[in-house]
Amino acid sequence: MPPYSPASMNGPISEKLFEAAKKLIPGGVNSPVRAFRNVEGDPFFVRRAKGCRIEDVDGRSLIDYVCTWGPAILGHAPTVITNTVHQVAKEGLSFGIPNPSEVEIAKIIVEWVPSVEKVRMVNSGTEATMSAIRLARGFTGRDKIVKFEGHYHGHVDSLLVAAGSGALTHGEPDSAGIPRSFAAETIAVPFNLPERIEEVFTKFGHEIAAIILEPYPANAGFILPQPGYLELLRALTTRHGALLIFDEVMTGFRLAKGGVQELTGITPDLTAMGKVIGGGLPVGAFGGRADIMDQLAPDGPVYQAGTLSGNPLAMAAGLAQLKELEKQNGYQRLEAIGQRFEKGLRGIISEKGLPYRLNRVGSMWCLYFGDSEIINVDSVQKGDFEAFKRFFWASLEKGVYLAPSPYETGFLSLAHSDRDIDDTLEIFAECLG
Ligand code: KE4
Fold first, then answer.
1. Which residue has the higher pLDDT, 328 or 7?
2. Which residue in 115, 180, 216, 371 has the most C-beta neighbors within 10 A?
3. What is the rounded distance in angstroms from the CA atom of residue 245 to the CA atom of residue 360?
4. 79-327 fold
């Protein structure tokens, strides 16, 4: 087993920057998962990124499988987006007044996502899920929200209960600073256990405003719903007059034009979106049934707002990305890239007789260092995190950047060529087992 190295591998400029950053920014980072705490090292700093590669400030070039946590589906800094942003920026950066690109992106989202009849743009995935649950509470007049352990919906007070992603990393599933009264209105249950969610609805059905979930949970690795489970959630919410909210901030526009709801044919009442629709700029969105969305101000009583919501630059970047995905037949090509990656990695695992599991759908994947069936975050936590850490550092040392946590999903982009995938698999063969 190659020993894993602490971040002594970071170059001198990264080290200096991190020392300075820690004096100015909490933990030296603007988002906790970037702090490399789950791999017990220090983060490096990036100077530039292009295609499937990132270059750190000390000149080290890495093949990137994090893709800025999902948005870089075409790869980093695609010319079609950077050229568009340059052009549009000359006309203005933000107006705070309606602009044509807001209508254009809303049209595409409504066309692509089966359940969305109306959509509102915001500036992050967190804003999207926060607004969606407020809207669900306003529409139903109920207070309780049901979520699943290990599902992460951004840092929303009501949803940082038994959360995934960075919250798991810091071993504080429930964040400090959340009033007990807030957490009391959130019911967290294990995913993929039908009897548990049925119990909740038997007990609280008439008080539940909505279930919110990641339909393919991607903040505790990458988990798939058991057959019939999403259908059960749809039936329970319909029967009890609660709403079904799909958090597709990660999966939306990544796994298909219409995300998981297109792949599964399950129609939620509301959908939270983000990442890919921003083309790398800050964007989120939430949308769904018109009768629900019309409850939003200024037409309805549910208030929601944002200075930079729908700003022309972010809309232009998102539009350029979505149109290019369609033009390049992106989802089909991503599936082919995913198949090459999966076939190669499965070959390595079986050749070495490693007790590991690999989940992949399209361009999202996760390698689990353990052989228990992965049905929810409890099964993920049984994994061998030491083996993950060794793999992370060994891969980084050889030029492959993976998410610095076993709770995160890996991504592929249209910029990952056959050569990049084959080079990566060669490195994985050296670093695994
Ligand atoms: P943002 O507020 O970070 O834009 O989106 C929150 C969010 C909501 N819903 C889902 C399913 C998400 O995955 C996210 C954010 N994803 C994490 C990655 N696991 C972002 C990385 C980070 O926190 O820095």
1. 328
2. 216
3. 23
4. Aspartate Aminotransferase; domain 2 (3.40.640)
Residue of 250, 308, 377 best suited for mutating to test ligand 1, as the one with most atoms within 8 Å of CB: 250
Answer whether residue 8 shows pLDDT above 70. no
Q: Looking at domain 6-77+329-431, does it have CATH number 3.40.50.720?
A: no
Q: Please, are residues 337 and 362 in contact by the beta-carbon 8 Å criterion?
A: no
Provide residues with CB under 6 Å of ligand 1: 31, 33, 69, 124-126, 129, 152-154, 165-166, 214, 219, 247, 249-250, 274, 284, 408
Across the chain, which distance is largest between two alpha carbons, in Å? Answer: 62
User: Quick one: DSSP state of residue 226?
Assistant: P
**Cα–ligand 1 centroid distance for 218 (angstroms):** 10
Which atom from ligand 1 is nearest to the alpha carbon of 126?
2
> Ligand 1 test: best mutation among 33, 153, 249, 251, most atoms within 8 Å of CB?
249
Closest CA to 68 of 90, 84, 87, 46: 46
Write down how long the chain is. 433
Name the residue with higher pLDDT: 163 or 253: 253
Atom of ligand 1 nearest to the CA of 124: 4
Residue from 53, 68, 56 nearest 415 by CA: 53
- Specify the ligand 1 atom closest to the Cα of 219: 19
Residue 302, phi-psi category: left (phi > 0), alpha (psi -120 to 50), beta (remainder)? beta
Give the residue ranges of DSSP H helices in 160-215: 166-169, 180-184, 194-204
Judged against a pLDDT cut of 60, whether residue 170 lies above it is answered with: no
Q: What is the pTM of this model?
A: 0.96
Domain limits of the chain? 6-77+329-431, 79-327
Each residue's pLDDT tens digit, 104-133:
999 999 999 999 999 999 999 999 999 999
Q: What's the DSSP call for residue 73?
A: T
Rounded to the nearest 5 percent, the helix, strand and coil shares of the chain are 45, 15, 40
Cα 249 to ligand 1 centroid, rounded to whole Å: 7
pLDDT digits (tens, 9 = 90+) for 302-327: 999 999 999 999 999 999 999 999 99
- Work out the average pLDDT over 235-262: 98
Sort 188 into a burial class: Cβ within 10 Å, 0-12 / 13-18 / 19+. Answer: buried
Mutate to test the pocket of ligand 1, among 66, 126, 212, 248 (most ligand atoms within 8 A of CB): 126
